[in-house]
Structures are given as C-alpha cells and as structure tokens.
Amino acid sequence: MEHSPVTTNPLIIMMINMTVVFIVLVVLMYLIKLIHFIDPTKEKPKPAQVEEEEPLVAVKSEPAPAPAPIIEEGISPEIIAAISAAIAAYGFSGQVKAVHIVNHESTPWRSSAKFNTLRRK
Amino acid sequence: MEALNAFTVSLQAVWNDSGFSSFTVGNGIMILVGLLLLYMAFVKEFEPLLLGPIAFGCILANFPNTGFFGEEMNVMKAINFGITNEIFPPLIFLGIGAMTDFSPLLARPSTLLLGAAAQVGVFVALGGAMIVGFDVHEAAAIGIIGGADGPTSIYLSTKLAPHLLGAIAVAAYSYMSLVPLIQPPIMKMMTTQAEREIVMKELRPVTKFERVVFPIVSTIFISLLLPPIAALLGCLMLGNLFRESGVTDRLSDTAQNALINIVTIFLGLGTGMTMSAEGFLRADTLLIIALGLVAFMGGTAGGLIFGKIMCKMTGGAINPLIGSAGVSAVPMAARVSQLVGMKAKPGNYLLMHAMGPNVAGVIGTAVAAGTMLAMLK
C-alpha cells in the first residue's frame, strides 16, 4: 500500500534507518548465538586436562621477518591470496616461500597423471 | 520510368524506416558511452559479466525505430518486464545465496555490526542527494549505491525511482568493479600499521545444524519485520539452504551456475536498455555518479571506524581492516581486506575473517533497502 513519506527531513530519515539496520542486525547476531546455544550437534568443550599438558617453558626467539615469496610471472596477487588463505584454512601456519606454475602446457595425459597422484595422497 | 519511380519510393521507405532518419546526437553519444563501457568490461575486465551486457544493452537502446518498447511483445520488452517488475534481482540473490558460505559470519556473529556500520554510506549519500535537490524517493535509490550491491540497487530503483535506473545501475556496478582501487587508500589512511598487522584468531568450526537453521530463522524474522524485501532476502536464504542442506546438490548447482548466468545476462541487458539518450544524458546522471562515490567511500569509512571500535573493545583481537568488507561487494571487498592485510604483514590471512562482515553487508544493504521502502513507499 502506498502512502506519503512520514518525513522528508534527511537527518531524521538517516537516523531512523541507521537505527533500524543496527537493531535488525543485532537481533540477527543474537539469533545466531541462540542457534549455536541450542545446537544439539556441537562438540562439547574438551576437559581441562588438556591445559595441564601444555608444553614446558620454551625459549622463544623473536621470529625473523618473513622473506617475500618468490612468485613466478603470470600469477596474480589475488591467486596468491587465495592459495595462502587455503593453506591457512587447513591449519598450516607457515610462510609461502615460492609459487610456481607447475604445468604450463597441460595435456589430457599429464592432467590425468597429476589427478591420479593427488588422489593417491 | 515507372520502375525508377517505384525504386525511389522504396528507397525513401527504407530510409524513413531506418534508424538513420531519426538518429540524434544524443543517440551517438550514448553509443559511444556503450562502447566505452564495453572497453572497460572486456579489455580492462571491470565486472565483465555484468558490465558487458549493460554496455551492449546501452548500444541497442539507442537505435531509433527498433520498436523494442512498442505495443507488441518482443524479447527486449520481456527482458524489460523482468527488470521493471523486480523479477531478476531476487533470482540473482538465489544464485548468490547458493554461492555464499555463511560460516565465517556464524562463527563470529559480532561481524554483523560491521555490516551494519558500513551502511552509513547509504544514508550519508541519501542526505547529500536531498541537499542537492533530489526528492526523497530518488535520494533513497541513489543512496543504496553505497551498499555496493547491484541487485539491491536495481530492486530499490525500480520501486522508488525507475527513471534513474540506468544511471544508478551503472554507478553501482562501476564502483563495485573499482573496489580494489577505491578502498585501499581509505583503509591505509584510517588505520595504523600496528592495526593492519593484527593477526586474528582462527574461527571456530560451524556445524551443519547452524548452517541449515540460520537461513530459515533469518528469513522468518526479516520477512516478518520488513515484508518489502521478503522476495530478495527469501531468495538469498533459499539459495543458501540449497547449498547447505546437502540433499539438493542439483538445485544448488543450477542456482549458482546456469540460473545466475542466464539471469545475469537478462539483468545486464535489461539495465543497459534503460540507458536511452533521453533518460541518461542529463546533469542528474553526473550528480548520481558523484553521490555514488561519496556513498561508497562513506560505507568503507563507516565499516573501518566500527572495526577500530571493535578492535579497542576486544583488546586488539579484531583487525579493523575487515570493517571495510562490510560493504557488500562479495567477495571482492573481502579480498581487498586480505590483500591490504598481507601487504602490512606477509602471512596475515584475513580473507575468511573478512567474509563475515562481507556477507553481513549483503544482509545489511537489503535491510537498509527494506527500511527505506517501508518508510517511503
């Protein structure tokens, strides 16, 4: 149903809209927390025993600044970012040292061999 | 003699029916604009999937006597029907939902606040547009460019200011494609080196239960609160449900590949077809493009400021760079956060952390559009 605007004052419109956006997203935030709270499939927190097994005191030296990775020409920074993020997602915390294009001219036979090797791993 | 006469009359008829007889300077300028957009899309690769069809639609719209929008139904009129009746934006959202992983948002729900904060740009531009003389409906449609969300911009424009659709769509998609150029200077200006170097804690694993329940619950809540965006948000969440349910792989595959590709062609072409010389060649268009930039920069700054606040409140656990991803250009804005973070400290992987506010930005922009529709329509 169409009706005339409640107000045409830009400041009031801005304030009302911003408030509504924040309220809706804050409610969504709590809904997500509620879903997590009632989730019957979530893993129970591990017992405190693990903390006792924390490693003994280790002398930590200041890490050396990471060298810039060697990147082969033709690989865009976005691809590097995606590769780095994928490595991090699998839990590896190391620094990417070099990125090379493994196979410039792929043939079906080479692709098949590479695929089989990967599957074996 | 008779044959010559018939030949002349026929030639005259062909000329009168041709586009050349009614071709205007405005049409010529718009065809050049279309060619420039084609160059940006296909040579410079600025959002080629969308800018390409928009550019070609712009060229087609400026051929006189085509009868595209006459009485009889034809393919261009059918495509235009999909634009003016808000059919395509929700279908695009269906595909976006099927392509998007909500896990980073579910793992750290506080990032929703960054998505909300980045909507500041929408409302700053709304105020600015009203100050320079646009009416409240036009100003709201212009402001939504700041959300950096093409389908929502088109959705709101067709409802509030259909005569500005072409300019708004072009501005929205242009700025979305320019995210990697516009955002980094603002990010560097508003954050310190130490803040950019903050390494965030790994996200907790999210269960399938959470991933399935969230789209259902959020659809129920938002659609009840803001019915004008039920189609938009419902489609986004349905697409995501296809993805997460684990039993609708075929539907998920169709939504995130074939369907979204087909609708993208129609949406782009239809939007381009609104760029006729009479509608586009106005001073207002330049103002809209300028206001869109203000909106976009305001949104980026809003997200970063809130990111800094969250950084302080959490004792440095949040890298403020993820705040700029609160504008909803998915996943480009998140990638920019990652790249700027990596530049500050090699090995600082912010991509997954930035996806939280990025997805929140999509929801936030839709909510902002719904609020404005509820207030103004």
Key phrases:
heterodimer, A: about 120 residues, mainly alpha, two-stranded parallel ribbon, about 50% helix, B: about 375 residues, 20 helices, about 0% strand
Helix content of chain B: over 70%
What is the total number of structural domains of chain B? Answer: 1
Secondary-structure element pattern of chain B, one letter each: HHHHHHHHHHHHHHHHHHHH
- Number of distinct helices of chain A: 4
Taking the sheet with the most strands of chain A, its summary is: 2 strands, parallel
- Mean pLDDT of chain A, to the nearest integer, reads 74
How much of the sequence lies in strands of chain A comes to: under 5%
N- to C-terminal distance of chain A: 62 Å
The two chains with the largest interface, and their residue counts, are: A-B, 47 and 55 residues
Distance between the termini of chain B: 65 Å
| Mean pLDDT over the residues of chain B | 91
Radius of gyration of chain B: 23 Å
Please count the beta strands of chain A (DSSP E, at least 2 residues each).
Answer: 2
Coarse shape of chain B: elongated
Task: Describe what you observe in this structure.
The complex is a heterodimer of chains A (121) and B (377). Chain A has 121 residues and is mainly α. Chain A has a domain at 63-120. Helix content of chain A is 49%, strand content 3%. Chain A has helices at 10-38, 49-52, 77-89, 108-120, and strands spanning 70-71, 98-99. In chain A, strands 1-2 form a two-stranded parallel sheet. In chain A, helix 3 (77-89) links the parallel strand 1 and strand 2. The longest helix of chain A has 29 residues, at 10-38. Chain A is extended and about 65 Å long. The model of chain A has no long low-confidence stretch (mean pLDDT 74). The longest helix of chain B has 31 residues, at 283-313. Chain B has one domain (27-62, 76-376). In chain B, helix 10 (150-160) runs parallel beside helix 20 (351-376). In chain B, 72% of the residues lie in helices and 0% in strands. Chain B starts with a helix and ends with a helix. The radius of gyration of chain B is 23 Å and the shape is elongated. With 377 residues, chain B is mainly α. At the A-B interface, helix 1 and helix 3 of A face helix 7, helix 8, helix 9, helix 14 and helix 19 of B.
